[in-house]
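2024-03-11 09:14:02 DEBUG pipeline.ingest accepted 1 chain
2024-03-11 09:14:02 DEBUG pipeline.ingest length=742
2024-03-11 09:14:03 DEBUG pipeline.predict start
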Amino acid sequence: MRPPILFLALAFGVGLWAGLDPFALPGAALWGTALPVAAAGIWLAGRAPLGAAIGVMGVAGTLWGTAARRERDATCAGRWGREAGNGNRETVAAAVRLIDPVSSQGGVVDAEALPGRCGGPLRLRWPGEHVARGGTQWVVAGRWSGVADRGVLVVRRLIQLEATPRGRGAVRDALAARSAGLFGARAPIVNALVFAPNASLDPDIRERYVRSGLAHLLSISGLHVGFLAAWLALLLRKLHLAPGPRFAAMVLLLAGYLWLLGLPPPAVRAGAMLVLAEIARLRQRVVAPRGTIALSALGVLLADPFALRSVGAWLSVAGIAAVIWADRACARERRVVRLVAPALAATLLTAPISAFTFGTVAPIGVLANLVAIPLAGLAVPGLVLALALSWLMTSLARLVAGGAGLGLALLDLVASTAAAVPGGHVVMVAGWAAAGLWAGVALVAWWLWRSPRRPWLIAARVAFVTTILVATSLRDVVGLDACRCLTVHFLDVGQGDAAALRTPNGRWIVIDAGPRTPESDAGRRIVVPFLRRQGASRVAVAVATHGDADHLGGMPAVVEAFDPELVLEPGEPLGRPLYLEFLARVEESDARWHPARAGDRIELDGVTLEVLSPDSLWMALPLDVNEHGVVLRVSYGAVRLLFQADAGLPVEARLAGRVGAVELLKVGHHGSRSATSDGWLDELAPHEAVISVGRHNRYGHPTPEVLARLAAHGITVLRTDEGGTITFSTDGHGARLRSHHD
């Protein structure tokens, strides 16, 4: 497999992307994809046959991607995602077979829609208090949220069709039961390491592994397949099987394991590389590693075209390519260099992908992986062995589980230690800017590595890079004649609220911090990176308007990261786990906690925060938590802003006549019909209104009635779902007022 296979795989991938999403690349039609790729191939190789082959692969990728997209549109997820994009959010129903068991806590679970009007894989948000076994059949009904690739069916009603587990779900259900019996409270992490790639884990555990650079261990990938393949090869050799039967046994066992996992692209890539390497060994051929990677990636794309959109697949291919390159490039270096180089190269090459998608990079993972990977290499096969023995010899299985559990505890200790290292985990705003920065870091590292080994030359290049870093770091320094303004950023956190206010003296106020779900924390992913990018080192005031997850969800992360001086919240005793976690974070910080009540005033650098609601009498009424939320009026000079949170018509009626005119209104409850009455708008008379709302949200926010009322009052409406983060700035007199989408 010579280097041209890499060009062919890239051409197929470019064409495939164009076929899956014709609008992803400008002019990504048949000729617009095939001809440039063919020309690039001719230029790279200087050979017309190779260029023609690359052009053919580009065309093939386009046709294959188009066919895959049409097939996906016929599935339940594809059809409902398309309908949601067209504004149709009616209740949908399907008969499904669960892939994994569901506990009484509910959560996100993978399922397979049974053939009928539509079929295919589905992701469900299962309601709490409904235990279900993997492999059982159900009829579920609910609202579809999101698009086809990242959508989820929020289940509201369900009926069990068949109680007997079948198929892959039945095997996973049995394994989950054995895991719970052997490992108890640690069963979820065991499942995530062995057979359930999308297992629901405690957010603290997942966050610990992310901050330590070990998140890849919690997502079954090529590393796990490699561990099992290595131990399997050792076992088969001990059985003294001939090469042919040994190869056949390995292929069958690997195929069975990949089927159990659900054929995730990273694991399939690893399995393909292992099979190719074994075939080359049997035929006594030397195989170029880059050819093996390219061919395995090509095979994955042929089997599952949508793997091209899988972040795990990108990270898997980039990581293994970096490891192979570093191992070859450092073959003659000292032992310490050979030990560190693969982890460092993998971190640098995957950093732009991770920064673009998640906004996080963990440099500490370079060191943490040196300890964690050998531990995982012992623990993961031990976990598999314990589960396998549980069907044969329970006492021996418990003994093995104890040893593997010790390895698991040591692995968690490594993650905890690495996560606590200051600066070991870098958080940015996810997107092209973050990816570009880390791509630049990788290029600088490559440039320094490739420089001649002359101390003076290396020192000169390091000095040059340092100069560039210092110069760019000072580009945002504010002069003495700069505007002493109040700047408010309404952050785009999806279906939730989050606002960051910067006072004229550069201190920060945070009002809500967006939603948190098992898959995403807007506080860690958006609010904290935004504040750090703005240079914030501490938050002066953090306001949690009320206890709903779309407002409070990200606040524990903000409190943990910035140790606010003061925390305001309604003080309504809620038994929700999220609220209790928030209180625990406040207790751990140095923050002063205060229950917000009407009449409270906070002055900070000329900015005044006035609490208009709730008061103690209002809190005693049996109202929805939204109506007990903190309503704030923010004043700077002659300019006033109103933050209504999710307060609705009852609060508006109660505050009528006591608020006065404002320049800007943060519309209540994301534009729900339960708020923003005509009388309220008559009194406030805002020039502009901000609606913080998620794209394609299942609630239908903002409602046409509210938009019509705002338009009738001549109010300019700015929405986060249409233009992203909204910035409002004023010098207090209106002379330097601006409001725009970032």
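2024-03-11 09:14:41 DEBUG pipeline.report The radius of gyration is 28 Å.
2024-03-11 09:14:41 DEBUG pipeline.predict end
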